[in-house]
Amino acid sequence: MTIAIVGAGLGGLALARVLHLNGMDSVVYERETSRGARGQGGMLDIHSGQRALREAGLIDRFHAIARGEGQDMRLLQPDGTLLFQEDTPDDAPLERPEVDRADLRDLLLDSLPEGVVRWGHACASADNGLLRFADGGSAPYDLLVGADGARSRVRALLTDARPTHIGQNVVEIGIPDIDRTHPGLAAMVGRGSYWVLGDGLSLAAQRNGDGRVRIGLSFYNTAEDWFATSEIPFDDPAAARARLIELLPGWDPRFTALIAACDDTVVPRSITTLPVGLTWPSAPDVTLVGDAAHLMPPVGEGANMALLDGALLGRALATHPDDFPTAVKDYEREMFARTGAAARMSADLQELLMSPDAAQHMLAFFRPG
Ligand SMILES: Cc1cc2nc3c(=O)[nH]c(=O)nc-3n(C[C@H](O)[C@H](O)[C@H](O)COP(=O)(O)OP(=O)(O)OC[C@H]3O[C@@H](n4cnc5c(N)ncnc54)[C@H](O)[C@@H]3O)c2cc1C
Predict the structure, then answer these.
(1) Which residue among 5, 18, 31 has the greatest number of ligand 1 atoms within 8 angstroms of its CB, and so is best to mutate?
(2) Residue 368: pLDDT above 80?
């Protein structure tokens, strides 16, 4: 019985790893040509996903790469007022440590035998037990698992649902090697997350393990075509930084200094999600894990859910190695309930971030009662 997994992200790799631990083979088809072909982005906050890493026999190795101090948090208002600061004691439990996405992906990749991941295989379509690749090749499957992220190709085999824009557009910028290049700004941001929440705008800076501070500037309640009308010249990074500063009128100069110190990486990102509580009638030979199944606002649940999906589908298949349809049904029943709850919570948090007085709402969130 051939298990084909499309996508070597966190969900697909967690599944392949748990299958491997249970003596079951799978093949992961990944469109990127190698593990380093594309930057993997910034940090992930891993909490419930630790259960999946335990199931995958990787929790000790995870703790070795996790950054407990990354849990530090500072929340400010645009006028510079510090509303909330939490510093993580050295002996604090690793409840929600941060980890570099590339380190976590490497951990999973290194835990698989050579040849499980087939790089440079972009899935173009699939049906009736045959996966077709963009280069004209094909491969058979008995069970196909779409772990191919937000823009999943496999999803269309199960549902017509598509991600829709949620009125948030993000510009990603960053300061490399901040301790050496801008020590004052490094001290200001600290070891973890540094959030400035205004009305309809936010700046989220975060220290990464490689010394880079990644910054996301979010523009809320903006249309899907906002980048086209925002007059941010993405092809001229210095002018783009100047325009971004213009878009933060009245913000404390310490915050705009962060933008001025950034390098020439300026990446636009539109935020889309799938409907909360999306389900589909179970199919005997296809299922989905991770963002392909339940794309949520980026408020800290997606990677955790993807890891859990992969690990729990792996366990269900190991429990029913001769009955994939039953394994898929059992997995989907649990996954729909768990990820539906996470998606609802994420949507509520997103609503707070997008509301007027977001800073006060988030303060109440961090300091309930
Ligand atoms: C800015 C940002 C910050 C985030 N921070 C957090 C956080 O702190 N905590 C958290 O829990 N979540 C976070 N998330 C969400 C998290 O990144 C995702 O939910 C998670 O990566 C989903 O994993 P996945 O395996 O489903 O998909 P992905 O990680 O997207 O992996 C999909 C893989 O499939 C491959 N692929 C795609 N199409 C094809 C194809 N046709 N053929 C073959 N391969 C294909 C891709 O190349 C990729 O390798 C964040 C998201 C963003 C955007």
Answers:
(1) 31
(2) no
191 known member of a binding site: no
Could you report the per-residue pLDDT of 218-247, keeping only the tens digit for each? 999 999 999 999 999 999 999 999 999 999
Atom of ligand 1 nearest to the CA of 269: 53
Residues 6+ apart with CB under 8 A from 228: none
| Domains of the chain listed by start with CATH number | 3-68+97-162+274-353 (3.50.50.60), 164-272 (3.30.9.30)
| Structure confidence at residue 181 (pLDDT) | 95
Say if CB 262 and CB 175 are below 8 A apart. yes
Point out which residues pair with 36 in neighbouring strands: none
Tell me: is residue 101 an annotated ligand-binding position: yes
Give the Cβ contact number of residue 110 at 10 Å. 10
Any atom of ligand 1 within 6 Å of the Cβ of 310: no
Mean pLDDT score across all residues of the chain: 96
Calculate what percentage of the chain has a pLDDT beyond 90.
92
Does the CB atom of residue 98 touch ligand 1 within 6 A? no
For 6, what's the count of Cα atoms within 13 Å in the CB-facing half-sphere? 33
Atom of ligand 1 nearest to the CA of 289: 26
Question: Does the annotation list 38 as a binding residue?
Answer: yes
133 lines ligand 1 (CB under 6 A): no
Cβ 302 under 6 angstroms from ligand 1: yes
Q: Supply the pLDDT for residue 369.
A: 66
Q: How far is the CA of 9 from the centre of ligand 1 (A)?
A: 6
Q: Is the pLDDT of residue 268 over 70?
A: yes
